[in-house]
Each structure stands twice: as C-alpha cells, then as structure tokens.
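Let us work through a complete example step by step.
Step 1: write down the sequence.
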Amino acid sequence: MTESGERRHARVRYSSGTVMVRSSKSSPFVEGSLIDISVSGCSIKTAEPLSVSPEDVLELRIDLSTLVFRAIGFVRRASAGSLSLGIEFHRIAEQDKSDLETLLDYYAEA
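Step 2: predict the structure and record it as tokens.
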C-alpha cells in the first residue's frame, strides 16, 4: 500500500486520519481528511476550499488515532478550488517524526 514515484519517502495510504489546517494564525482551522502520508508530507482533502497556492505555508493538526501531532508545511500541489492539497512538512517535532516513522513502517509492512 505504498507509493514512491519521485518522492523522497514512500507514502502510505491512510484514509482514517483527520486533519485540521489553516493558512495563517488569524484564519480559522478547516477540517479535512488524510489521503496518504509519509515522514516528509501528506495529501489531504479539505471539507471546504482554502485560498492557497504552491509555496504557501500551512499549519496542520493531524490525528492518526494512535498519534496526534502538529506540523508546519508548504503547499506543493493544490487542485482547482483547493480542496485537494499536497503538503511537504517543513517543521515537525523530532519525537513526532520518530513516532510517525514507526507507525508508517507498521502500515507499510501490513
């Protein structure tokens, strides 16, 4: 269930995760769902459009049931209407990154 293509890290499809995302500290969080995730980024689908473009910075709260963490990421891909986003993590706590690697290794082997 992994995808690598031209990516630095293999992505694992993980549709059970939820995401809260916002484009600035003054913006409200928008709910979304996780499509896939790796230690370097994720793809999400938001419940409502976000006004973003490639290179914009986003704040994320990601809930994977057994792991909840925050990250700052760059928009790398945005669909028309910006409901579907590809995000590269820029800042994530080292412990969260380690826990995420462990969780993804588990799902990649399943």
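Step 3: interpret the result. The CA atoms of residues 78 and 85 lie 5 Å apart.
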